[in-house]
Design brief:
With about 180 residues, this protein is an all-alpha fold. Helices cover about 90% and strands about 0% of the residues.
């Protein structure tokens, strides 16, 4: 028949083992919860990045369309100005170099305006492309703001349980020896 001390040591060891297993299971549950938060956060970060890229692409399209519209309107205005100059010259009887200079100046002004419109468009599009580059780092920062969960180290838990069991067995053996003398 077992000694009460041995029985108590056995129960104590069993409770320690159960406690270690329960602690490991709780760590795993917390890690699963943390991983769910990580994945949810990563989805939100990816969605945010995607929306920013969509808006950026839309803005680039709008900038291209606006520049094309301004260039078209500039060409129409230049054509109207040239027609007006020619009509005025014909009505006044002006001819020769002065007429050519007026038309050349009007054309040069139109070309300068076209160049400014194109340069502004290119600067804006370059700026928007640079913005896109920041979206990836923003995405990574947001995604990594929530860490992945780390579950229980079952190897360490197993070794701990083994050490507790060995310690309990040694204590029970010593108690038995002490009581049987």
């Amino acid at each position: 028949m077992c000694e009460p001390v041995s029985i108590m040591l056995g129960i104590s060891a069993a409770l320690a083992v159960a406690g270690s297993v329960a602690q490991g299971m709780e760590q795993d549950r917390q890690a699963q919860e943390q991983n769910k938060q990580y994945l949810d956060n990563a989805k939100v970060a990816a969605s945010s990045k995607s929306e920013k890229e969509r808006q950026n692409n839309e803005r680039q399209t709008q900038e291209n369309m606006a520049a094309s519209q301004k260039q078209f309107e500039g060409m129409v205005a230049a054509g109207e100005l040239e027609s007006s100059i020619e009509l005025s010259a014909n009505e006044s009887g002006a001819k020769g170099r002065s007429m050519g200079l007026l038309l050349a100046e009007a054309e040069a002004e139109t070309l300068r305006d076209q160049d400014k419109i194109e340069q502004n468009k290119l600067w804006t599009l370059s700026s928007l492309e640079n913005e896109k580059k920041t979206y990836e780092s923003q995405y990574r920062n947001q995604r990594n703001s929530v860490k992945k969960g780390k579950g229980a180290d079952w190897t360490t838990t197993g070794l701990k349980i083994g050490a507790q069991a060995a310690g309990g067995a040694a204590s029970a053996s010593q108690a038995y020896k002490d009581n049987t003398k």
